[in-house]
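Late entry, written up from scratch paper. The run itself happened at the end of the previous shift, but nothing got recorded in the book at the time, so transcribing now.
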Amino acid sequence: MKRNIKNLLLIALLTCFVCACASSKTVKDEANKNNETAASGAASVDGSESSNTGNTENTFEPFYVYEDFMSPKNHYAPSGWMGDVANLELDQSYSQETHDGKSCIKMRYNAEGLKQWAGIYWQHPVNNWGDKKGGYNLTGATKLTFWAKGANGYEIISEVKIGGISGAFSDSDVAWLKRIKLTGSWKKYTIDLSKSDLSSISGGFCIVFSKKDNPKGCTVFLDDIRYE
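Output as recorded:
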């Protein structure tokens, strides 16, 4: 009888010990789980703050009208010839006067036409004078920049502009620079677009020369035309 009582007491003690160990392990596991959850939550908060900070910055990627001849980054096409078109020459693969890359644009205006001016629109799609759906949404860009120089250093670009094409599918805005006096060295020029509506731009770039500004004609070079 005494031996049975001792056995029962021993079993009871062992049972209490096992239960205590299991309870301790459960508490420890729960604590570890809580710590992991807390760490995960902290990482999520940090990530959200970083993401929000990034979204407040202007993330507009450079959007090229012309980077290099046949570059996959190029957009728009120089299809909108205007004025005395027979008196204007365009070479998009000129390789001797580049600002950057392997090629640049060379334009020659001879000022002998009856209209006394000539120009080209870079359009999307080709030959789009506002009668076709097209253009690009350039929202986020704050400026258009381009590099230019003259063959002699006294040339004048009568006008450079973006947008301005009207019609059934007109451009959402227009902005320009007038009478740009070039030098014989490459120089960067900027059109401010910070307040422009760029939601639909079919006329990505336009350049105009006139006899009034260049009585003897002119030769100019352009490179790296892009929205930023």
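The helical segments are 2-55.
(Scratch paper discarded after transcription.)
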